[in-house]
Amino acid sequence: MYWTEFFIPTNKEIPADAKIPSHQLMLRSGMIKQESSGIYTWLPLGFKVLKKIENIVREEQEKAGAIEILMPTLQSAELWKESGRYDGYGEEMLKIIDRHNRLLIYGPTNEEQVTEIFRAFVKSYKNLPLNLFHIQWKFRDEIRPRFGVMRGREFLMKDAYSFDLNEEESKKSYYKMFISYIKIFKRLKINTIPVVADSGEIGGSLSHEFSIITNTGEGEVYCDKRLFDLEFDNDDLNTLSDLERVVGRYTQFYSATEDKHNEKIFREKVPEEFRLKGKAIEVGHIFSFGEKYSSPMKANITNKEGKNVSVYMGSYGIGVSRLVAAIIEYSHDKKGIIWPNSVTPFHVGIINVQVDNKECLKVIQEIKSKFEENNLEV
């Protein structure tokens, strides 16, 4: 790709409301353009990075057994009333009334929608386990959107939803997603800290959030940095004990958000040279919530004994558009962004300092072709 054939509308000025490096660098480099509060157009350079992250997420989710679908951005409010979440979600929910006076919701999350899909088609335990995921734009009407795409109102997110016969099988699905998330973040070259988390509005008894330490995060996280040195083995991970063993390797190390941090235990468990604390950016969150949605929405299956039972569920989210900003916060210097090879918009830049020299142009074109033959974008 030649610069003259591409569209990179760079900016020399930094807007006054761009407070953190990722927001500043994304605007200056022509990756995004703000259209209104918390809403952005993704320009070609930013869109290339966004799609590369999306593809990595997709590949690893499919390797973990998840199947991709695409759910609509608009959902029926009746589904949310059925689950009991409609009245409690708050003003972040954008509500729309169509010409037939039907109340719709611009989806902030998709637990209700995917539960409705499941109950429409799946009736027997023989169809389980099942894990469905989609990558779709969402909207939450943040009262104070800030930090660019880090905390916008419209954002691209990957959601996966698991369906299992019982609690033990549901744990297997949960741990598979835990491992898949670690693999995703390793491919993105960001050291991620899995932390036991509150389930919040989503609900459930088992939850982890995945955070990275930067200079501009919200809230603090404490951890043992030895967890960053762990590597995966190539063992098959099919049984619950196998999955628990691998997940246990990551959760054995101390990690806690500031609201759950215990300084005494931190000092007892972690040698001083391995203690790490800093501001955290959440890049993923996973939940196991059993029958929280399946029971009120009557998403039932027939088990091996012929009994009608509620399916066990979990949900697993990654902010794809947020990851673009998070990677920049994690990896930049005074000269600009330091992209991981896996998501860089271009791998190599060639500058012709003798534009009128035909021989020079010929050599540059040969070099460009060699790079492209080796799957490097120029």
UniProtKB/TrEMBL annotation:
Alphabetical list of Pfam families matching this protein: tRNA-synt_2b
Reactions this protein catalyses: tRNA(Pro) + L-proline + ATP = L-prolyl-tRNA(Pro) + AMP + diphosphate
Record InterPro entries: aa-tRNA-synt_IIb, aa-tRNA-synth_II, aa-tRNA-synth_II/BPL/LPL, Anticodon-bd_dom_sf, Pro-tRNA-ligase_IIa, Pro-tRNA-synth_IIa_bac-type, Pro-tRNA_synthetase, ProRS_core_prok
A cellular component annotation (GO) from this entry: cytosol
Domain Aminoacyl-transfer RNA synthetases class-II family profile, residue spans: 38-340
Enzyme class: ligase
Recorded GO MF terms: ATP binding; proline-tRNA ligase activity
Leader sequence residues: none
GO biological process: prolyl-tRNA aminoacylation
Enzyme Commission (EC) number: 6.1.1.15
PROSITE patterns referenced in this protein's UniProt entry, alphabetically: AA_TRNA_LIGASE_II
Keywords: Aminoacyl-tRNA synthetase, ATP-binding, Ligase, Nucleotide-binding, Protein biosynthesis
Protein name (Swiss-Prot/TrEMBL): proline--tRNA ligase
